[in-house]
Each structure stands twice: as structure tokens, then as C-alpha cells.
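Q: I'm building a small set of examples for a reading group on sequence design. Run inverse folding on the following structure and report the sequence directly after it, with nothing in between.
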């Protein structure tokens, strides 16, 4: 019997070769999918970690209130804990520390700081870097306000601590300027150099604070001073990470906080380890799970297509060998002998297919952009696929009855309907688990659609048979008759293959379109530069000069809406931009942002007073009565980009003498739009009586403009400052008010003079999610807390999503109007977090500004479509279409070959009746063409329907939530027509080739065999 296997293989090698090709292709597909969800998934997370920004991988240990005797040991232990948490990766460490406050002269306070890599975080203006703890560098604002120059000496008193260090006199060796994005926001004074109303944790009254006085970092950590705060930052080298090591440092970083607390014990008051690294790694893992689910869904579709091809191959093989098997049984071969022959042949076929499929799947994985690898999961998937394929093809000739087939079709349709219902009912929130419904539903829906479409093909062919014209020629009527009456075993494969190919092309286009839409709304504009520190006047001009385009300040921060802080750790987001330019600046969401912005923008611009560059601004004030009063004036200056900054002066006594405000007129195009005059005195309190009339004049030489100014008293307790008024005349602004001496000390007692009226309620547009969660509608009023200032807002419109806050509970406001509302309530800070740029000509130049992280729409779209984590989905889609085409063509070739093999006698009889070979070939090609064209059309229709019905439900955001904005299905006509044309041409070529070869073999020998 084994000899029979060899002889039959030699005689039927074309059939076995086609069967081997289909089995190998199906097994290789399984191997590729296994590699994509294992090797590629692990490598994608490794690449994502290697591409992370420094801020995402830094691990920082914090310690608060360290006694000077414990400083060296606390530093050493903190470094050790961080190094252990990040093992086995090499770690680079840096640190910064600030001492407790020390008294300066005139009731002021100051502090020492040490920065390990100071030359990289600040630039010298004059002098040299300090080399010991009795030498210091100061920031420019500190030097200006304290009138310090290089060579001056500053006396700092004893520390305010339990074990105070003695007084210290330091020599100023340098005046420095902070570099953007260098971490100065973590300085006690935020890198501003001063705070005229600093209130420490244990201070009863605010005080003027100045610093840092930057001393030698190792000297500060030697135990010479107690520390108010210590930061040590570790940066692991993740340039070539391993996914197992990444899992280890993720766990180590999460446990580092508890470990540091146990190690430091009572030596510090507060300790903490903070890092975005575990979150970044967890996010990459969640993104990979989302990608894996989509890859598996497409992979199951490819496997379903392969199963259809294998079922066809098994059926055709059984048909070809049916008479042979019957003859062997008649000659005395037992069932065990026949089974042994079949098992030997199947085993040999499975072995060869496995040997071929393993390297083939590895090669295809490399072609898709993965690494060359052979894994156990891959080999197991290939072997399992091969075994299942052989079992499918060994099913014999038994076919289910028509009633059973109808029941199976109905069951398939029911399962597809249930899967679609499950897809439509999936929640909008993040779902990262691999869901069997999401994986199986696309294949079920396509298969069910093809099964239903196939029900329509036979009636159409039967109708064509009845309507065929009675022509004198035989080939055309014969082709129609045979098409209507011959079995169409390959019908499901043809329809499903065409549906899978067209759906794969459309799904790929829809997915890419969705990623671009998500990128547009995620960034919110063409270029967003998130600031690492406070913005400065003239910064917008520098951005415009570097990158070009339209530049505007923007806010994007978390806020509280009334008492509501959001849910699931996600605070409401407030986005504020120049609403007049919303149509130019904003991107994404498919909204008419110009129309939305028109409902938010103020009617008139803030005119203000022009401030000539280099003007010597002075403040002169007087107060009645014997109580000594002072003010710390704050000038609100607006630059040409709309950015408002605060220029402050030290406490200025109201003594009738002019006092300079240096550094306020250093930029071009500045306009003074508001003045805040908080009045201070040690005499304020409940025991004081009487009041004092103040008269303060701000003089700006060369100023022009004016407009209408208003004056008010700000919260809290605005009644403590009565009758505020302002008069603008040329270069001077004169403000008067009556200050109540008695009353609460926490009263603001502040004159707020503005060049615009109080806007009252700020109009906002809110996201649909916020409107649904708070049950609000246009016209509803809310209260939003910006920083510490509550601002009333009124909903002007509802939008699906707010730019730069997709899917979030978010509000969109005009930045100018918001700033006016804050100023009217005594808050001088404009809430600016970023620079937004529309139509930049050189976005890459933003990196050279060192202002913070820069994101572009195009860059974000590139990350979402070609990044290491989502790359698996485009890869498997690139595999699906050619696999569908090849399997379809292989099935068609196999079907036509077997059909003509079975009809060889019929063809010989036609030749015997005098029909020419050309006419026979025309009839045969026409028969198969008439069958294939409607099947291809039906498959394309099913693919199009699936694109509209299924594709939007399969696509999720990178974190597994419903994408915002919603999905717009894409049917790329040029690509789809190209695929349909390739399928049609390929099928015709395959049919014609087989017909030409097989028709030549049909001769009188077949008639002799039959007779």
C-alpha cells in the first residue's frame, strides 16, 4: 500500500502540490500571527521604552525637611534605593537641594540651593560659577530686586530649624539666567528669583522671599545646612531594553516609594518616589493589548479564508479520488488499509507543510518589519494549523443534506448578528482585554454575508439560463447552461476572498483616517509647545521667528467644576485660546471652530497703554494718617501675541517718593492693560481703627493711549478697600482708594485697575461628555476654579470634543476673556501652559528653543500609525490582502483543474461530435467567468457593507476607549478598483491557463476508456 502512495503522488502531483500550497499558506498565516502577538508585541514595547522622552523615564526621590546631620546619609540611601529599583539598567543620577529659609535684612528671607549640573540648567550673565558653600550665584531677578552685583556679599542669618546652622556670609560670584525646560519649576520659588508674598509651611504671615542663592552642590550636601527639600533623579539607559527587564523595573519603581520610606525612616519628615515610568510602561502594555486584539481579529479573518480554501481542497480531493477509492474497496482493500494509506499520506503532507511553513512565516514576519525569529509559540501554531488543515481536507465526500446546510447557514447568520450586537453595545470607556467577541465577530459577519449572498447567485444563473438567446452558435449557450447547472464548489472561497480583500483595503484606509483624526484633536493645533516653566514677555515673538506661522498662547490644565473634580482620577480640562483666531488655530473634531470661537470671543480688545521699550517706570504713593502703608505693585503687560505677564516690585512704601520698577519695559510692543495694588501694613487687624486714604501714581515716560479704565476692590472682603478710582492722563495712571485699617488680616485690600470692564460670566463651549455627565445644556451656568480663583462660566455651545482634550470632560474658553475675569477677581496670573502655532513653516526648530515638549499633528499621526506599538495592525492588514488574493487564485485554479479532470470524457465527446477546440475553450472559459463575476461582485458588496457596519466598531483609541472624534468609514475607490481588477484578471488568467492545458489532454482515449 505504501507503493500505492508513491505512485498516486506521482500521478496526481499537481493536485497534491496545490493542496500542499494551501495547507502551507494557512499554517504560515498562523505562524505570522503568533509572531506578531508575541515577538513583535514584546519588541514593540521595547522600542516604545527606548523612544520615551527623558521626562517619561526619570525616577525622582523626594525628601522634605532633613536635619543637617542626616543629609549625607539620606542622600546616599536615596541614591541606593533608586539604583536598586532600576537594576539591571545603568543609571545616571543628578540632584538638587534647597536649604531651609534663613533671614535676610529688612525682614526678608532667602535660602541656599545646589544643583548638580548647574551649567547645563543656567547660563552665565556675568562672573564665574561658585566653587564652595561661601560662594553663590543668583538669578537675574534676584540681583535686580536686591541690587546685587558680582563681588557683593550677602549675610544670611541662622537657619530656622531645630538644629540651626550658624549665620553665613556668601560672596556673589555670578549672575545667571535660567534655561527653559531645565527643571526650575521645582525650585521653592519656581525659578522666578523672588516671591513678594511667600508663605512657608509654618509661617503665620507672608514675607518677601528671595533666592535661590546657588552654592556648590557637594558642599551643600556635606551637612553644612539643613534641607527643606531634596530631589535626586535617576535616568535609566533604555536605549536597548529587554521586555523582561522592563517588567522588572516597572515593579521595582512601583515598590521604590515603600522601600525609600522604610530605609529613610525618621530622618526625614516626608519622602516620596515619583516617576512617570511605570505609567508609561503600563500604557504601552495597554496599547499593545488593543493592537493585539485588532491583529487577532484580522488574523481570524485570514484563518477563516484559509479554512474555506482547505475545505474546498478537501472536497475536490475526495471527488477526484472517489472512483479510485471505490475500485480499491472492490478489489478487497480493507477500511484499515485505506485508512493507513490516507494517514501516511496526510502525515507526510503535514510534515512537509510544517517544515515549509515555519521558515516561510519567519520570512513574512521580517517582510512585515519584524525581527527574524523562530519561537515555540510560532512552531506550535504552525503545527496545530497544519494538523487541523489535514483533518479538514480528509473529511471525505460526505456532504451535509440541504436542510442541514440551511440550518448551518442560519446558525452562522445568528452568530454574526449576535457578534454585531455585542460590538455595538461595547462601552465607550477604555477596554484593553482581548475579547473573543471582538476577535471573532468580523470573520463571522463576513462569512455570514457571503453565505447570504451565495443564496442569490444560483437563482440569477438559472434566470440567465432561461433567458439565454437561441443563437446558432453553441459555445455561449453551452457556457450559460453549464454555469447554471454545474456545481460551484469554489463559490464561498471566491466570495469570501473578495470580501476579505476589499474589506482589508477599506479597513486599513479607515483605520489610518481615524488615527489622523485622533491626532488632530489630540494635539489641537498644528504645533503645540507645552511650556516647562512660566512664559515670558517676548517669548511668542521668539517662537514665531523660529517656527513661523501664527503663534498664540494657550491654556490646557485641570480645573474643578463647582465641587466636582471629575471621576476615575480624570479632572475636567480647561482649554483656552484666542477665540478670535479659533478657525486658524484649532484642529480636529470636524467642527467649524471659527463659528464656535465667535461665540466665545470678547467684543472689544483691551486697548491699554503703550509702554516704550526701556522706559523708567516709577511708582509714587501717599497715604493719610499715622499708619505706615506700603504696596507691592503688579503691572500686567500684554505683548503682541496676547500674552500677559506680571512685572512686580518689592514692597514700596507710600512715602511720597518715586520708586523705580526695573525690568518692566524690556520688551517691544508691550501694553499696560491692568494694575494691581495690594496694600500692606503691620497695623492691619481687628484691633485697629480708622482708615487711610491712599493716592498712588504710576508714571510711564513716553506712554500713549488710554481708553476707558475701571477700578475695583478684589476679594476676599472687598469692603475693606472703599471708593477705588483711577484716572489716566498721558503717561500717568493715578489710583485712589480708602483703606480700612481694622478688620480681617486676610482681606485683600487690593485696588484692581483694568483697561476693560469685568466680563462677568465667561462663555464656554463644553464637550459632549461633560454635558452628559453634568446634565447641562447651552445657557447653563457653572463655576470653574482656575488655580485658586473661582470663575463663573456660561455654556454657549456643546461640541463632540475639545481640541487637545479628546474624550475628556473639557471646556473651551477665550483666553483673553478668562484672563480678564481672573484679573477682575484679583488674580494677576494669565493661565498659559503652551504656545500653539498654526501653519508653522519649520516646526522642527521648536526643539532648539528649549521651552518644553513640542507636538505636531503630523508627528502624532505618524506615531499613531507607524509607531512601534500599533505597527502590528498595519502589518497584518498588509498580509491579509495578498493572502486573500493568493488563496482565492489557488482555490480557483484547483477548482477548475478538478472540474475539467472530471469532465474530460464530456470534452472528448464534444470533440467527437465535431466541436472545435477553440469553441470548447470558449465555452469552458465562459462558463467559469459567468460564475466568477457575480461571486466577485457579491464579495465586493459584502466587503463594502462590512466596512460601514463592522470597521467603525473594531477601531478603538490607543488606550482601548471609543475614539474621539467618531469613525468615518472610508471606501478608497482607486485601491478597491485595483484589487477587484487584479482579482478578476487573475481569475481569468488562471481559468484560461487551466482550460487550455486540460482541453488539449481530452482526446479519443477518454472515449475508449468510457466504452
Amino acid at each position: 500500500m505504501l507503493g500505492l502512495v508513491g505512485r498516486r503522488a506521482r500521478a496526481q502531483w499537481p493536485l497534491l502540490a496545490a493542496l500542499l500550497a494551501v495547507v502551507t499558506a494557512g499554517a504560515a498565516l498562523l505562524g505570522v500571527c503568533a509572531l506578531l502577538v508575541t515577538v513583535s508585541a514584546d519588541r514593540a514595547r521595547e522600542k516604545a521604552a527606548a523612544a520615551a522622552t527623558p521626562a517619561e523615564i526619570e525616577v525622582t526621590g523626594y525628601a522634605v525637611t532633613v536635619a543637617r546631620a542626616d543629609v549625607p546619609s539620606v542622600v546616599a540611601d536615596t541614591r541606593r534605593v533608586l539604583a536598586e529599583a532600576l537594576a539591571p539598567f545603568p543609571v545616571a543620577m543628578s540632584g538638587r537641594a534647597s536649604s531651609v529659609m534663613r533671614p535676610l535684612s529688612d525682614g526678608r528671607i532667602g535660602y541656599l540651593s545646589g544643583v548638580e549640573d548647574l551649567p547645563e540648567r543656567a547660563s552665565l550673565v556675568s562672573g564665574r560659577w561658585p566653587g564652595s558653600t561661601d560662594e553663590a550665584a543668583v538669578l537675574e531677578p534676584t540681583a535686580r530686586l536686591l541690587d546685587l552685583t558680582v563681588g557683593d556679599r550677602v549675610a544670611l542669618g541662622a537657619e530656622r530649624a531645630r538644629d540651626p546652622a550658624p549665620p553665613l556670609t556668601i560672596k556673589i560670584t555670578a549672575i545667571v539666567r535660567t534655561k527653559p525646560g531645565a527643571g526650575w519649576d521645582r525650585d521653592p520659588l519656581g525659578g522666578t528669583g523672588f516671591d513678594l508674598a511667600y508663605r512657608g509651611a509654618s509661617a503665620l504671615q507672608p514675607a518677601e522671599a528671595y533666592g535661590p542663592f546657588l552654592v556648590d552642590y557637594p558642599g551643600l550636601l556635606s551637612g553644612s545646612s539643613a534641607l527643606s527639600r531634596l530631589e535626586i533623579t535617576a535616568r535609566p539607559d533604555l536605549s536597548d531594553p529587554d521586555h523582561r527587564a522592563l517588567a522588572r523595573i516597572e515593579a521595582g519603581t512601583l515598590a521604590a516609594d515603600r522601600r525609600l520610606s522604610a530605609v529613610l525612616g525618621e530622618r526625614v519628615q516626608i519622602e516620596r518616589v515619583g516617576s512617570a515610568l511605570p505609567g508609561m510602561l503600563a500604557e504601552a502594555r495597554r496599547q499593545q493589548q488593543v493592537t493585539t486584539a485588532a491583529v487577532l481579529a484580522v488574523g481570524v479573518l485570514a484563518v477563516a479564508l484559509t479554512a474555506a480554501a482547505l475545505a474546498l481542497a478537501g472536497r475536490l480531493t475526495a471527488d477526484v479520488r472517489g472512483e479510485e477509492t471505490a475500485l480499491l474497496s472492490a478489489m478487497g482493500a480493507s477500511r484499515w488499509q485505506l485508512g493507513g494509506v490516507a494517514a501516511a499520506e496526510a502525515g507526510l503532507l503535514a510534515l512537509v507543510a510544517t517544515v515549509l511553513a515555519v521558515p516561510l512565516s519567519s520570512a513574512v514576519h521580517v517582510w512585515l518589519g519584524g525581527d527574524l525569529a523562530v519561537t515555540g509559540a510560532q512552531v506550535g501554531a504552525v503545527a496545530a494549523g497544519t494538523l487541523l488543515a489535514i483533518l479538514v481536507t480528509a473529511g471525505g465526500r460526505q456532504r451535509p443534506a440541504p436542510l442541514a446546510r440551511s440550518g448551518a447557514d442560519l446558525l452562522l447568520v445568528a452568530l454574526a448578528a449576535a457578534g454585531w450586537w455585542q460590538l455595538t453595545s461595547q462601552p465607550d470607556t477604555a477596554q484593553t482585554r482581548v475579547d473573543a467577541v471582538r476577535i471573532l465577530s468580523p470573520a463571522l459577519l463576513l462569512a455570514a454575508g457571503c453565505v447570504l449572498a451565495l443564496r442569490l447567485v444560483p437563482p440569477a444563473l438559472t434566470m440567465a439560463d432561461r433567458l439565454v438567446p437561441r443563437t446558432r452558435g453553441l459555445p455561449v449557450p453551452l457556457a450559460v447552461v453549464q454555469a447554471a447547472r454545474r456545481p460551484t464548489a469554489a463559490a464561498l472561497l471566491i466570495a469570501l476572498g473578495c470580501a476579505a480583500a476589499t474589506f482589508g483595503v477599506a479597513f486599513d484606509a479607515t483605520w489610518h483616517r481615524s488615527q489622523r483624526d485622533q491626532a488632530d484633536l489630540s494635539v489641537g493645533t498644528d504645533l503645540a509647545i507645552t511650556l516647562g516653566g512660566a512664559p515670558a514677555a517676548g517669548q511668542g515673538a521668539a517662537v514665531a521667528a523660529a517656527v513661523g506661522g501664527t503663534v498664540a498662547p494657550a491654556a490646557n490644565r485641570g480645573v474643578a467644576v463647582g465641587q466636582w473634580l471629575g471621576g476615575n482620577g480624570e479632572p475636567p480640562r480647561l482649554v483656552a485660546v484666542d477665540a478670535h483666531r479659533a478657525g486658524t488655530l484649532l484642529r480636529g473634531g470636524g467642527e467649524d471652530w471659527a463659528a464656535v470661537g465667535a461665540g466665545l470671543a470678547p467684543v472689544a480688545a483691551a486697548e491699554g497703554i503703550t509702554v516704550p521699550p526701556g522706559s523708567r517706570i516709577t511708582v509714587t504713593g501717599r497715604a493719610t494718617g499715622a499708619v505706615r502703608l506700603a504696596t507691592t505693585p503688579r503691572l500686567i503687560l500684554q505683548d503682541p501675541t496676547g500674552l500677559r505677564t506680571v512685572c512686580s516690585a518689592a514692597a514700596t512704601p507710600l512715602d511720597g517718593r518715586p520708586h523705580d520698577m526695573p525690568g518692566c519695559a524690556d520688551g517691544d510692543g508691550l501694553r499696560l492693560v491692568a494694575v494691581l495694588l495690594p496694600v500692606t501694613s503691620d497695623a492691619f487687624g481687628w484691633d485697629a481703627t480708622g482708615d487711610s486714604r491712599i493716592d498712588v501714581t504710576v508714571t510711564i515716560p513716553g506712554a500713549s493711549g488710554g481708553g476707558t479704565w475701571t477700578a475695583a476692590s478684589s476679594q476676599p472682603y472687598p469692603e475693606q478697600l472703599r471708593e477705588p478710582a483711577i484716572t489716566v492722563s498721558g503717561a500717568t495712571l493715578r489710583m485712589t482708594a480708602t483703606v480700612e485699617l481694622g478688620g480681617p488680616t486676610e482681606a485683600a485690600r487690593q485696588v484692581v485697575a483694568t483697561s476693560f470692564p469685568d466680563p462677568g460670566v465667561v462663555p464656554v463651549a463644553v464637550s459632549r461628555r461633560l454635558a452628559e455627565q453634568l446634565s447641562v445644556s447651552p445657557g447653563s451656568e457653572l463655576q470653574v476654579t482656575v488655580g485658586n480663583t473661582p470663575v463663573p462660566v456660561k455654556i454657549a455651545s456643546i461640541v463632540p470634543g475639545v481640541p487637545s482634550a479628546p474624550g475628556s470632560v473639557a471646556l473651551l474658553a477665550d483666553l483673553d476673556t478668562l484672563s480678564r475675569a481672573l484679573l477682575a477677581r484679583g488674580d494677576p496670573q494669565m493661565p498659559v501652559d503652551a504656545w500653539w502655532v498654526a501653519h508653522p513653516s519649520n516646526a522642527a526648530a521648536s526643539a532648539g528653543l528649549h521651552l518644553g515638549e513640542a507636538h505636531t499633528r503630523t508627528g502624532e499621526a505618524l506615531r499613531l500609525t507607524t509607531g512601534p506599538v500599533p505597527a502590528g495592525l498595519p502589518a497584518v492588514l498588509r498580509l491579509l490582502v495578498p493572502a486573500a488574493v493568493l488563496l482565492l487564485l489557488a482555490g480557483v485554479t484547483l477548482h477548475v483543474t478538478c472540474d475539467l479532470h472530471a469532465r474530460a470524457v464530456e470534452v472528448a465527446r464534444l470533440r467527437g461530435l465535431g466541436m472545435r477546440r477553440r469553441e470548447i475553450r470558449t465555452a469552458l472559459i465562459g462558463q467559469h467567468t459567468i460564475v466568477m463575476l457575480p461571486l466577485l461582485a457579491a464579495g465586493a458588496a459584502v466587503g463594502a457593507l462590512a466596512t460601514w457596519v463592522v470597521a467603525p466598531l473594531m477601531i478603538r483609541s490607543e488606550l482601548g476607549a471609543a475614539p474621539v472624534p467618531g469613525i468615518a468609514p472610508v471606501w478608497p475607490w482607486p485601491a478597491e478598483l485595483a484589487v477587484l481588477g487584479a482579482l478578476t484578471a487573475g481569475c481569468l488568467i488562471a481559468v484560461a491557463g487551466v482550460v487550455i492545458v486540460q482541453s488539449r489532454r481530452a482526446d479519443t482515449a477518454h472515449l475508449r476508456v468510457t466504452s
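The CA atoms of residues 619 and 698 lie 5 Å apart.
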